[in-house]
Design brief:
Elements (H helix, E strand, L loop, with lengths): L1 H53 L9 H5 L9 H18 L12 H25 L24 H5 L5 H4 L9 H16 L3 H20 L5 H21 L25 H8 L12 E4 L2 E4 L6 H5 L3
Antiparallel strand pairs: 1-2
């Protein structure tokens, strides 16, 4: 038993080391894209912090979702954040699964380059949108009478640049259209839809995205329009960017370089294809022309009739 565990642990360690080497090589080629995506996350947070200074509390706007969905209350607002955290962490774990599991279909670095490009494009549109018009926030800390609804003018540029993380992000106001939580949720769900393999996880992902939408509205973190705009905007962004970006290499394609039909275009037999797939060389002398007569395969084009063989000719 201990020998088996040791052998499996050794295989796992070799797999992790091989995968790490591969990903480091990809990181060396694509680090600029990853760094740009991460830097833009800070820029997005800075923009959300800046619009908070412009926010002016007022009466909560009339909203269809608020009318249809009962208010969870301030003490149950954590439910929405808990589900979002689960989706966020699940996606991160999936992107790193090639380091552990044998079924490798994606490269971690390339998947994150893809996901960050979707996030950056969606967040850039979001920044333009919420700076265009500031709506009175429906969240509890953004309503009239709350000390957090407005921010006093900053004493220095440094105060703005630090964005008071994470308190300033959690208790921000004014960055409404469209929902940032839904941007991340939909980007992660759509990325798995494209590159994931488990059908039940794909269905679960869309179900959780719908539940997340309802919880955001029920928690009064956003108006319904913020969630609705996020749904069609992010889907369109992902659709158009996917068409512009090159196709991701499929890790399983290496085993499908040779056709597995009875004979391929070069006339090689199925047995020869399997030899090539297994790394065994095939003697070129065996690639002689064969002629099939009455169910028998004759070499060198010398075909003998079955009836003649019976007569001893």
């Amino acid at each position: 038993m201990s020998l088996y565990i040791g052998r499996e642990a050794s295989k796992l360690w070799k797999r992790v080391c091989a995968e790490t080497t591969t990903e480091i090589n990809l990181l060396a080629e694509n680090w600029k894209y990853l760094l740009a995506g991460l830097v833009f996350q800070y820029i997005h947070g800075l923009a959300a912090r800046g619009v908070h200074y412009l926010h002016r509390p007022g009466p909560v706007l009339q909203d269809l979702g608020f009318f249809l969905l009962p208010e969870l209350g301030q003490d149950k607002a954590y439910i929405s954040e808990t589900l979002f955290t689960f989706i966020f962490l699940s996606f991160i774990l999936w992107t790193f699964h090639p380091f552990i599991f044998k079924s490798k279909k994606i490269y971690t670095v390339l998947i994150w380059c893809r996901a960050l490009s979707f996030l950056v494009a969606s967040q850039a549109l979001r920044i333009v949108t919420f700076y265009s018009t500031q709506l009175p926030g429906p969240n509890y800390h953004c309503r009239e009478g709350s000390k957090l609804a407005t921010l006093p003018p900053p004493d220095s540029v440094l105060e703005v640049l630090l964005i008071n993380f994470p308190h300033g992000v959690i208790y921000g106001c004014g960055d409404l259209i469209f929902s940032s939580h839904m941007i991340f949720t939909l980007v992660f769900v759509l990325t798995y839809q494209r590159y994931g393999t488990r059908r039940w996880i794909k269905q679960l992902g869309f179900f959780l995205a719908v539940v997340q939408s309802l919880l955001i509205i029920a928690s009064r973190k956003h108006y319904t329009v913020d969630v609705v705009v996020a749904w069609y905007t992010v889907n369109l962004v992902v659709f158009f960017i996917e068409k512009k970006l090159p196709e991701l290499p499929d890790r399983t394609a290496a085993t499908l370089l040779l056709p597995l039909s009875t004979k391929d275009k070069d006339g090689r037999t199925k047995e020869e294809n399997h030899k090539l797939l297994n790394g065994n060389s095939v003697d070129p002398a065996d690639w002689r022309q064969r002629t099939q007569v009455n169910g028998k395969i004759m070499e060198d084009g010398n075909a003998l009739l079955a009836d003649s063989a019976k007569n001893g000719a």
